[in-house]
């Protein structure tokens, strides 16, 4: 009898497994059918747009690696023009735009981000301003705009300066009596920007710069960026079901849980402070300014409705991602460019000396005076934009300046890196030349030739926050150190979600 029960149980389990397997197969087949139909529609509607010949399975991904992707995109723009078609995997057609006049047709609108592409990071940063669309995006953009008013940003500059001085002192300790030390910019600058954003946006003292390179939040952010890039480049992982069952999917869920738990803890602590009517941080230090989280928790729309708990969490995760990782990339690459161009570095150092005098910290009033440093940052954001590509999905037909048309429901790849390196727009584009951004040289440039913060209604809401942090950090670094490229370590651009360098970005740092 017991044996019969075991046999029946085994049969039942086998039956359930068989049903589940059949459901998985049907789900995958249905997705393939839908993708094939969309691919056929795109072939017809985008027939007027040329592009590189795709591989039957990998599409145009076969022609690129992570190491060569940016250069290949720039090359394709030269060969096939400012609007050309590529294929990602066997089914996903993308119309890539790499000229200011073609980009303008999409980037100047509020067209939403492509759901399929950005759904890869949605479990991580939620449905915040970066991803959301429609009425939700319009409402929340309006509610969050006051958080980036100049009056809110003013006290942040001193925090940026204090955080960057912590990094400067840390470098001096690392250098010691040797006089020079090779330091990975991304490692240290990421800790600095994390420290700054936690203090500015959430009034949170993390001491993360003192904790050092093993900070778990940064470790998981790096892992998430790598996993999302791998998923995009491996077509089978575009299926949510396949990705969920994969080892990479497991790693992604684990990293996401940690990253969101970190920010949830930040929000929880602030709620407790507000509940107790406290205006100090968790260390008891009284704050004299409003921060991003204050505004999130109290803002209300015209109907008297505030943001839901989920919306607050999503906006916090979005701002943590956009305000920490992208700024770290911008600062790191600018320091690299200054190390490669010592004459520019010397000018920045002299300007920093003249502006700060014998004071310890930079102030809000100093920001407009750092003109040359500002030009150097802008040129670095051109040569090394932190976000190299954006993908939108049109909700209405688009007609380009040359008369060609793309229908609604078309994926548009906005090639920020490609347009920044297009020789038809930027003479000698590989050359680092801050004078491109002098007032005289900026006059006749097409309005969408330079878009490191995107443009139009969906531009980066925190770009003034980021620019002030970059100016303050770079000014404090160059007035304390001479920077040179460590020629023993290769610099290789790594375009994940954020533009990094494979193996770090190492500079020889010598105290001035």
TrEMBL record:
Its cofactor is heme. This is Uncharacterized protein. GO terms for molecular function: heme binding; iron ion binding; monooxygenase activity; oxidoreductase activity, acting on paired donors, with incorporation or reduction of molecular oxygen. Belongs to the cytochrome P450 family. Heme binds at residue 460. The keyword Amino-acid biosynthesis does not apply. It is found in: Endomembrane system. The chain crosses the membrane at residues 12-33. InterPro entries: Cyt_P450, Cyt_P450_CS, Cyt_P450_E_grp-IV, Cyt_P450_sf, Cytochrome_P450_Monoox. Residues 428-447 are annotated as: Disordered. Pfam families: p450 (PF00067). Its main location: membrane. PROSITE patterns: CYTOCHROME_P450. CDD domains: CYP4B_4F-like. It comes from Owenia fusiformis (Polychaete worm). Residues 428-438 have a biased composition (Basic and acidic residues). One of its GO terms (cellular component) is endomembrane system. It comes from the Eukaryota. Keywords: Heme, Iron, Membrane, Metal-binding, Monooxygenase, Oxidoreductase, Transmembrane, Transmembrane helix.
């Amino acid at each position: 009898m017991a044996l019969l029960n075991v046999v029946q149980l085994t049969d039942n389990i086998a039956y359930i497994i068989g049903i589940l397997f059949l459901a998985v197969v049907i789900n995958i087949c249905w997705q393939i059918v839908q993708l094939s139909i969309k691919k056929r529609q795109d072939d017809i509607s985008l027939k007027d747009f040329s592009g590189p010949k795709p591989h039957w399975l990998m599409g145009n991904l076969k022609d690129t690696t992570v190491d060569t992707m940016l250069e290949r995109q720039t090359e394709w723009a030269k060969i096939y023009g400012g609007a050309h078609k590529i294929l990602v995997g066997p089914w996903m057609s993308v119309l890539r735009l790499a000229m200011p006049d073609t980009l303008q047709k999409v980037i100047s609108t509020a067209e939403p981000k492509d759901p399929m592409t950005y759904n890869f990071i949605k479990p991580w940063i939620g449905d915040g301003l970066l991803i959301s669309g429609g009425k939700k995006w319009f409402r929340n953009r309006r509610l969050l705009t006051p958080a980036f008013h100049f009056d809110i940003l003013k006290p942040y500059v001193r925090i940026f300066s204090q955080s960057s001085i912590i990094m400067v002192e840390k470098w001096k300790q690392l250098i010691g009596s040797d006089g020079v030390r090779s330091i990975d910019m991304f490692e240290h600058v990421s800790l600095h920007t994390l420290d700054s954003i936690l203090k500015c946006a959430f009034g949170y003292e993390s001491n993360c710069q003192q904790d050092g390179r093993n900070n778990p939040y940064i470790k998981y952010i790096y892992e998430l960026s790598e996993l999302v890039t791998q998923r995009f480049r491996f077509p089978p992982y575009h299926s949510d079901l396949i990705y969920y069952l994969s080892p990479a999917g497991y790693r992604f869920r684990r990293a996401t849980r940690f990253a969101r738990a970190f920010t949830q803890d930040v929000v929880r602590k602030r709620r407790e402070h507000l509940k107790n009517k406290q205006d100090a941080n968790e260390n008891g230090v009284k704050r004299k300014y409003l921060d991003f989280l204050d505004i999130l928790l109290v803002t209300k729309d015209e109907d008297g409705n505030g943001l839901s708990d989920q919306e607050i969490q999503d906006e916090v995760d979005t701002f943590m991602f956009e305000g920490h990782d992208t700024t770290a990339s911008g600062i790191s690459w600018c320091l690299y460019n200054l190390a490669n161009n010592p004459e520019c570095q010397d000018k920045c150092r002299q300007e920093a000396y003249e502006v700060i005098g014998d004071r310890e910290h930079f102030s809000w009033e100093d920001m407009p005076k750092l003109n040359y440093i500002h030009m150097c940052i802008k040129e670095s954001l051109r040569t090394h934009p932190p976000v190299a590509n954006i993908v939108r999905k049109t909700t209405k037909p688009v007609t380009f300046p040359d008369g060609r048309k793309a229908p609604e429901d078309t994926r548009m790849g906005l090639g920020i890196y490609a347009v920044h390196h297009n020789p038809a727009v930027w003479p000698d584009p590989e050359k680092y030349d801050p004078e491109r951004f002098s007032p005289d040289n900026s006059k006749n440039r097409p309005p969408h030739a330079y878009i490191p913060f995107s443009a139009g209604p969906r531009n980066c809401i925190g770009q003034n926050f980021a620019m002030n942090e970059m100016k303050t950090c770079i000014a404090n670094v160059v007035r304390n150190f001479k920077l040179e490229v460590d020629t023993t370590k290769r610099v290789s651009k790594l375009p994940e979600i954020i533009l990094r360098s494979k193996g770090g970005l190492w500079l020889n740092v010598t105290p001035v």
